[in-house]
Amino acid sequence: MGVVQFFVVHVIVQSAWAEPYSWAGNNISDLGNVHCALQPEPEPRYVCSPEHGLMNTSFVVLGALLVVGVVLTGRAVWRRGPAAVAARLLLAGAGVGFVLAGLAPADADENMHVLGALLIMATGNIGLLLAGLGLAASPASRWATALLGFAAATALGLFLSHHYLGLGMGGMERVAAFPLLAWALAVGVSGLTGRRSEAAAPDSMEDEPSRRSQKDAPGGFNQRTS
User: For the chain, N or C: smaller number of CB within 10 Å?
Assistant: First the structure.
């Protein structure tokens, strides 16, 4: 829910810009900036986001739901052990980062906003790497999770060093930030479909052991029919 609402709001807020918003040339945080002004760093661009309040609310909702999701997921998602515990703490830290980013827009409280961004893209991506060890999932899923974390952490390094590889500032930032959201969405969908599959399991399968015991019991079905 948190990831879906974030992307829906992202599209709504960017469409409200008079000057077209660019996924390559603009930061994600530009959508939440309170004031209309020329932003010189890390690349010069004019920022004016009329629906900044909606975007900042979306950041907070996303972060809060991410924390709740990490807390509530248990043995169905995570193994026991230090890797799983560390992964969950770091991923929850990324959720806190989204909340900070929403409460402290970049042009209102830059230091707090930068802290939130680092929690999202540094703490969150390290959490993804560790989740590759801590997930109670197939080896393929664990490898995919670890690779997402590695790719996102590498993109963060490129973004901070201003090496955008033709993707633009905003494009490289998204490569660093969006793998976490893609993973969270995949885990959420997997959890929902898994629960529905369990709920839809036929009762006959659950009753089969008791039926067998009745057949084999003294005076049971087999003896009565004989």
Answer: C
Whole-model pTM? Answer: 0.82
- Cβ neighbourhood burial of 134 (10 Å; 0-12, 13-18, 19+): buried
Question: What count of Cα atoms within 13 Å lies in the side-chain half-sphere of residue 85?
Answer: 3
Q: What mean pLDDT is predicted for residues 157-163?
A: 95
Assess if residue 35 is contained within a domain.
Answer: no
Tell me how far apart the alpha carbons of residues 69 and 2 are, in angstroms, rounded to a whole number: 10
Quick one: how far is CA 127 from the chain centroid?
Answer: 11
- What are the tokens at 207? 């009753």
Name residue 164's amino acid: Y
| Residue 46 parent element (H or E) | strand 45-47
Determine contact, residues 5/58, Cβ cutoff 8 Å.
Answer: yes
Residue 13 has pLDDT above 80, yes or no: yes
Q: Is residue 88 pLDDT above 60, yes or no?
A: yes
Burial class for 82, CB neighbours closer than 10 Å (0-12, 13-18, 19+): exposed
Does 46 fall in a domain?
no
For residue 44, tell me if it sits in a domain: no
What was the pLDDT predicted at 79?
86
Give residue 216's pLDDT band: very low, low, confident or very high (50, 70, 90).
low
162 is written with which tokens?
């201003």
Residue range of the domain that includes 82: 56-186
Burial of 217 (0-12, 13-18, 19+ CB in 10 A): exposed
212 domain-assigned: no
CA of 41: how far to CAs of 33, 38, 127, in Å? Answer: 14, 9, 28
